[in-house]
Amino acid sequence: MRYAGFDRHRVLTCPFCGRVPEEPHAMQLRFGEITGGRCECGAVYAYDETGRLLGEAFNDALTLLYNEDYDAAQNASEADYQEEIISFDKRLGRYFRGPGGAEGVGALLDRRPKYLFLKKTTGKN
Ligand SMILES: [Zn+2]
Question: What pLDDT, in 10s, does the model give residues 92-112?
């Protein structure tokens, strides 16, 4: 993905593999609709437009990661998956890794839209 003119901050890229994942779109799950997408590497993400519902986005992403297997999602421990947050700065039109942008601060105060990515770690090493 390192061709001339490619600015990784101007497009949403997967924090695990660097590919461009699906655009955020409505995904119908049994318990309701979520907004998110998938990446070719197996990562999934939930999109949180308000930037303030990360707990909810986390649950959505976890459900997606386990293909709606709620038992597996419930029993998953932090060793089973990796979590990364990408935030989007509308003013700058750029994506940043981390909840508070480049500074990594003010995560709770900032209202940047966020993409909460999860990827399974088990069986991949
Ligand atoms: Zn990926």
Answer: 888 988 765 445 455 445 678
